[in-house]
Amino acid sequence: MEEQTYKVPTMAEMAAQNETPEVLFWVGCAGSFDDRYKKVTIAFTKILNKAGIKFAVLGTEESCTGDPARRAGNEFTFQMLAMSNIQVLDMYGVKKIVTACPHCFNTLKNEYPELGGNYEVLHHSEYLQQLINEGRIRTQGNQAFTGKKITFHDSCYLGRANDVYEAPRHVLESLDADLVEMKRCKTKGLCCGAGGGQMFKEPEKGRKDINIERIEEALQTGAHTIAVACPFCMVMMTDGLKNKEKEDSVKIYDLAELIAQAEGL
Amino acid sequence: MEIVQQVIFILLLAATGWLVARRVGVIGKTIRLGRDEDRRDQPGKRLSMMLRIAFGQKKMFDRPLIGFLHLAVYLGFVLINVEVLEIVIDGIAGTHRVFAPMVGGFYGILISFFEFLAVGVLVACVIFLIRRSIVKVPRLQPERHREMHGWPALDGKLILVFEIVLMIAILSMNAADSVLQDRDNAHYTQTGTFLFSQFLKPIFAGISTEPLIIIERFAWWFHITGIFIFAVYVTYSKHLHIVLAFPNTYFAKLVPKGKMDNMPVITSEVRIMLGLDQPQEGAVVPEHFGAKDVQDLSWKNLMDAYSCTECGRCTSACPANITGKKLSPRKIMMDTRDRLEDVGRNMLANKGEFVDDGKQLIGDYILEEEILACTTCNACVQECPVLINPMDIILQLRRHNIMDESKAPNSWNMMFQNLETNQAPWKFSPGDRLNWAQKLNE
């Protein structure tokens, strides 16, 4: 089989050639800089390439959406970042955005309109589901996950914040895996402990760390694969798993990585 | 003699009305201390939400057994009020069971139905009391949740005992009444036997007519006085939710839970800084940002505080609380209400004007440690059966702490700094944003 060369065009390159992409892939800070989540970015980029999507990224023109600043209470920094992002997005005439980060997703989708930025925003779980439904992703025939137990950890900013519960589950079902739910799932899902700026500070004094409470619940399902859909959840759950010394027997993957694996990418 | 009773009754009724009205006035006035916020859009959607969540108690049925028991108390409370109306008319006019001749044979069925509800209330309240005191449902225990120490824990039990006693009074009154009817006492209108109180008749059968009339009258007075006291008590207790659940669900947020309220003042500042707008002559720069006290919160946050019935579903779902942090969303609501009550008392004592008492919501009631522990996961918002939003208050308090007081953990200051200089929360060069792409074809 001919080896595919994967491409990541930037908006600037596209604009120079007078082209407009179908969709902007908003990579996010974790997707750009966090070593673990860069793998997710790469997996999702491969999927977009394989499916033949005309997409682009902002590259160095992308900034943080401002979510952690806003949640921490720093509205000035949030709005400065948001405004400059909106200027860049509008300069390129962006209409549709997909992102693998629920925090970016929530901010772009719900909070940018009030500041003048109006886009159709999708989380990559929703986008992947669309591609699967349209037959642009084919995972059939690959037995990698058949019958394997997978549990999905709901991200607060995807679930409760935006009522996206089914899309990530549909994506996992396409793997023909055995989806097992944790005791607290969907609307009752327990936070990983990173939201609201917690990712960037030490937790307050308590009996236990939140990610330990959550990883224990995930391990109780007996699944050897824990699926996540958020860079912060990925960090917190991975730390929890290390704490339990289970990183050899249990693996944590983002939805995009699982799909890429099933596609043999 | 009759006229004396009527006068006493009318005086009691008037006193109750006055006390309740005065209290409602204070509550309304303190809620209006809050910041203005328009929540009147999409009335159709709001109405249907109120009908589902408050009237239909949809969220209570997340836990079906509790939902069912709560429904019994709710229906009992609403429908038995029809009987209370009759009692009030009887009390004023000196009549006895004034509705009986009007509805004829149906009266017995009606009262039997009310007795059915009364027994439902009785059973539910006994089960609730057992859950609080013997089964010790964790979220209701002061040993586990410091905000429940003292009055809140007592309040919860008191109201249940209150309702149990009131229901026993209704049933005793009806049973004594039935026995007197059997003796063809002219004053006691024939109504036929009642569904439940007929089983209590043997208790009263051996008592001669004179003392029995006194017992029946006593039960009648006890019941109605109890209801009057209850009416006043409710306005001071956590039980305001029986009324406020309706407006509180009607005016709840209609946007996705993830969306934070924008601060337009800052938007105009930022637009000027970015050169998008010209500074306006004489534009008012706000004195402070976010909320440090109840007056800075929106009126809806304050209505939320009065609507809270301290059930603790929020706290039992809060990841910070579950893992032993000081944050409890229920405490956020109770503290907000406590502060509001203190402000209300202050205003009453100072001719309606609030006089600075050197206290504020953040610091004196809610601790910084509590609001710092929130992960903004929305679990508390999701859980509340009457759509209270504790997270909204937490985030407004954070805005005050950060923007007015510059009170942030060091690591947050680092994060802010990184965002301002590198446009990322971590210390990476913006020029390296696309470096990940180099590994794409490895």
Walk me through this protein's architecture:
The complex is a heterodimer of chains A (about 260) and B (about 450). Chain A is an alpha/beta fold and about 260 residues long. Chain A has two domains: about 10-130, Rossmann fold, CATH 3.40.50.1860; about 140-260, Rossmann fold (3-Layer(aba) Sandwich), CATH 3.40.50. Chain A has eleven helices and eight strands. In chain A, helix 10 links the parallel strand 7 (about 225-230) and strand 8. In chain A, helix 3 (about 35-50) packs across helix 11 (about 255-260), helix 7 packs across helix 8 and helix 9 (about 210-220) packs across helix 10. Chain A starts with 10 loop residues before the first helix and ends with a helix. The model of chain A has no long low-confidence stretch (mean pLDDT about 95). With about 450 residues, chain B is mainly alpha-helical. Chain B folds into two domains: about 1-30 and about 65-250; about 265-270 and about 285-430, Fumarate Reductase Iron-sulfur Protein, Chain B, domain 2. Chain B has 19 helices and no strands. Chain B has helices at about 1-30, 45-55, 65-95, 100-105, 105-135, 150-180, 200-205, 210-235, 240-250, 265-275, 300-305, 315, 320, 330-350, 360-365, 370, 380-385, 390-405, 410-420. Chain B is elongated, with a radius of gyration of 28 Å. Chains A and B meet through helix 2, helix 3, helix 4, helix 5 and helix 6 of A and helix 10, helix 13, helix 17, helix 18 and helix 19 of B. Chain A: InterPro entries: Cys_rich_dom, HdrC_iron-sulfur_subunit. Chain A: Keywords: 4Fe-4S, Iron, Iron-sulfur, Metal-binding, Oxidoreductase. Chain A: GO terms for molecular function: 4 iron, 4 sulfur cluster binding; metal ion binding; oxidoreductase activity.
Write the layout of secondary structure elements.
The complex is a heterodimer of chains A (265) and B (442).
Chain A: H1 11-16, E1 23-26, H2 28-33, H3 35-50, E2 55-56, H4 67-72, H5 75-91, E3 96-99, H6 102-111, E4 120-123, H7 124-133, E5 149-152, H8 166-173, E6 178-179, H9 210-220, E7 225-228, H10 231-243, E8 251-254, H11 255-262
Parallel strand pairs in A: 1-2, 1-3, 3-4, 5-6, 5-7, 7-8
Helix pairs in contact in A: 3-11, 7-8, 9-10
Chain B: H1 2-31, H2 43-55, H3 64-93, H4 100-103, H5 106-133, H6 151-182, H7 201-205, H8 209-236, H9 241-250, H10 264-273, H11 299-307, H12 313-317, H13 319-322, H14 329-349, H15 361-364, H16 368-372, H17 379-383, H18 390-404, H19 410-422
Pfam families (chain B): Fer4_9
Transmembrane segments (chain B): 6-25, 65-85, 105-130, 151-173, 218-236
InterPro entries (chain B): 4Fe4S_Fe-S-bd, 4Fe4S_Fe_S_CS, HdrC_iron-sulfur_subunit, Helical_ferredxn, NarG-like_sf
